Protein 1
Amino acid sequence: MTAPPDDCLARNEWICGEYLTTRRHILLDAVLQHLQLTAISVLIGLALALPLAVVARRWGWAAGPVLAVTTILYTIPSLAMFSLLLPVYGLSKSLVVAGLVLYSLTLLVRNILAGLRAVPAETRQAARGLGYGPIRLLLTVELPLALPAAMAGLRIATVSAVSLVTVGAIVGFGGLGNLIYAGMNTYFKAQVLTASVLCVVIAIVADLLLLAVQRLLTPWTRAARG
Amino acid sequence: MKTLTDAWDWLTDSAHWSGDDGIWHRLAQHLVLTVVCLVISCLIALPVALVLGHLGKGGALAVNISNIGRAVPTFAVLVLLLLTPIGKWGEGPTVVALVLFAVPPLLTNAYVGMREVDRSVVQAARGMGMTGRQMLFQVELPLSLPMIMNGVRIAAVQLVATATIAALAGGGGLGRIITAGFNLADTAQVVAGAVLVAVFALVVEGIFETAERLSPRWARGER
């Protein structure tokens, strides 16, 4: 019998360089799953939210029901949401994605709709006076002007999704949440802290990236301010 | 469809309502956790937000704290707390995590509400010779009440959600019915627990909605 090694893993310390080097692959896999789940969910959410917001803007009567349903969806706690989807999707990645799509959808619809509603009536009338049809008006005038509000929604939705993916650990597809869940059951401090910090880092980096994209897409907002 | 009828059968079985793992006990735990932590969070966040808002200081902090709160996963905080010495006293990690996540929306909304009070009204109050304290309690606080209540409502919904996730880290509350269902691979129980949690959350939201509708017009804001 060799004596157990006396390193930070054996001492179960919170911060452990040994953990980072020996579990590099596990961490990388978890981060990749985390990014994948977040990206797919937010993109599907965006693809659904955009037409919903446009419909709610064009036909006023649709706005009430759309906002009411999304508010109800958003009120349901994440763990319950994943559980309600269990009979439909089983223990799968799709279940986590579906749950996250519903949350992103809510945040995106609200923000895009707010952005579309904030387009000044004079601007729309001016475009119409120049002979813009409804589709050209939407694509070249209304949507670009709604972009800052939509991007704000996209940033909130992405950051929330990064954080909510961890709850997916209940069905085994939680990205870094899986490591946190496993670390909790084995009392593995370094694993829980490392995975938690990585979650926050992913959220911050994603937020900053989207902020940069927003700046690139809406140069006029900077010109007006500066 | 079969899962739904199974979940209904699970819910209507009186054996599942009594005892320490029963629905009544879990419901009471969830309710107590939510109410107690909401009161604690309000006692911490509102005085700070009102004073900062009155003085017009610390705005960046009060607004950014909400964004930071959103980036930190609830589940991660619960597990981290569980592994610290706090984890040894029963519901300790749950209470601390619940308060941590309820404070940011309270702080941000109350602060923004205080700052959005029409400056000319505040100046008029000062011109009438009101002291700082009188201005805070008789002018700024009543005018920012709709935003403050909006913060309380967001915090309450957040508390219900966090208390549910607490079950993953061994905390009490309705979430335990869901996690127990997962451990037993009993889909009917998982769905039944989820329905209970969802209804609980919607009832909480509904209570605030009703309170807002019944409140006098000045306290309702523009919405």
Note: The mean pLDDT of chain A is 90.
Protein 2
Amino acid sequence: MDFNNLISGLDRHTLDGITRGSIYALVALGYTMVYGVMKLINFAHSEVFMVGTWAVLGTYTVIGATAGDGLGMVIAATVLALLAAMLASAGTALAVERIAYRPLRKKGAPPLIFLITGIGCSMVLVEIFGQVLRVFFGRPFGRVTVNIPSVLETKTVFTIPGIDLAVSNTRILIIVGAIVMMLALDAFVNKSRLGRGVRAVAQDPDTASLMGVNQERVIMLVFVLGGAMAGVAALLYTVQYDITKFDIGFIIGLKAFTAAVLGGIGNLRGALVGGLFLGLVEVYASAVWDSSWTNVYAFVVLVVVLMFRPTGLLGESLGKARA
Amino acid sequence: MIRSTKTWQAVAFTAVAGLALSACGTTDTGGGSSSADDGDCNFKIAAMGALSGANASIVIPSVDGAQLALDQWDGGDCTVSLERFDTEGDPAKATPVATQIAGDESFIGVIGGAFSGETRATKTIYQDGGIPMVSQSATATDLTQDEPVEVFHRLVPYDDYQGVAIAKYLTDEAGASKVFVIDNAEAYGEPLADRVAETLGDKMVQRDKTEVGQTDFAPTISKIESAKPDAIMYGGYIAEAAPLLKQIRDAGIEAPFIGGDGLYGADFGNAVGAAGEGAVVMCPCAPIEDDSTFADDFEEEFGGKPGAYAAEGYDAMTVFLKGLEDGARNRADMLEFVNSYTGEGLSKDIAFDENGDVPADQVSYWAYKNEGGTLTPEVEVKPGS
């Protein structure tokens, strides 16, 4: 146990934890929105994120962006990759909804069936990237870790005076990017007309229908929004870690789902709080002990929090968030 | 609605009946072909390992090497085929494969298991079947040092030596005196890192553990930053080594990075990209000269340079083929032959001690440097001397 390491490097660990947590939080939004509206855990959401990371790699490959490009190219490549990832992830989420959930909903299937088709979709997507695409296109597809060129190279932008903490461009992008997307989504759901529809369906689907809210369109909307957020997370993730892999969504998805539950599933701000909290806990605990127990720390904290607050830290549903 | 249910019942019944019939058929042919003891020389040799999955690039070249040895062999009256069994390196998937191989008398030898975990899970199955194994790449110490089985042999030295070789490279070749040792907290990486740490003694500055599947190594990076090591050792596999090394270099840490043979393979360079330039991988696999006959033949047959353990795979097959030439016609004779085998191989002079290991004076490692995505042999390290 090395509490000295935690205290002496507290600033650094906090920055690391917020970076990690920001990505959890963005992915957690997809779980929480779908849950808020449909009372359904979309287990295919981890693969929605995975598809986004591949879209980033695809964009870089198509426009030929590599490490060491000029500033113009870096900005263009990053923006295009962001759009491509959002589009790919939102498209995947929508496809999952259309293929795995809508037909069942039309037939009034019991809730458990949706979980199974979600897991099935998740496996299909993993195998598409792990096996199927490799057969047609060869590398880089397959069950291997794939390098993504670090188009946006990590550089220290400034050092926080006093505590002498170096902050790099990638971290700024991740933290600011995540928070901006969160605020935008929160404002959208709480202020816009479509957002009002989302909240209405979350509160009471039947009454919302009677009031003229098109429930199917709201469901499509939450899948697209959740998917787009996973796409943003995918870009930020690849900027920080420069890799992807066919099963990369699994652990991120598990942690993001944990973050969503921790913050109060169905609650947008809960996803943010849960994500950041989980990231910080993991990094702090890893600093005191080591990283081989990361999942234990995360789930012990989850259990303890749920014992005292069974509905999560913020504990409200999407509908009640600000009705 | 009722009518369609009946249709489905009919379809289902037909399907079940068909399956049952085809199952009978399979049993018949199976019964016909499993006659190995009738004096003629028709045998199969099994190769068991991760032929797909994240670590396949460490295994496939060795099986190709074995295939090459078989293709180049003039068998006389013997007809021998190599059958590949994919386990993805997973002990749970290897167990049924081993049961199948051990139960089919037409298999006279096993090349593998390629990884230690699957070998640990299956060696008693092969022992019960009495079928000799020659592994090209399973290096866990306990496979031969704790509870050895008679059928298991390997062409590579075990991990205790590798830890010593890595430590020796770090102190003698890299001139390191403050080494940061990291492992992946699983069966391969942890004991390897333990051994390195033990050999380094006070030349190790700090130790950290990570886990399989991890991609964010920030807590480890901050520990490295404050320890200021002059070299970093990682015990683990490619999937985690690539993001770890990228984050080390992103943080501006330039200390040399060295890993064990878990990083050996073309996928390491692909996964780590530019950040992996100059990283060192220690491997008991002998380098193959680019212009050797073996390299030429291999390239001609498989369209690429011989990769990880290709020479060891070739040697493993050669041992079995020599056994057939010597007149071994059943598993017991073959096992006896392999136990006492000595001969010159591509990778080293081959012999097995009483545990099935490479004799201590033959143990040798090579440090490979990652240059532009290719692992280039740098220096030979003899841990025994």
Note: Residues 26-249 of chain A form one domain.
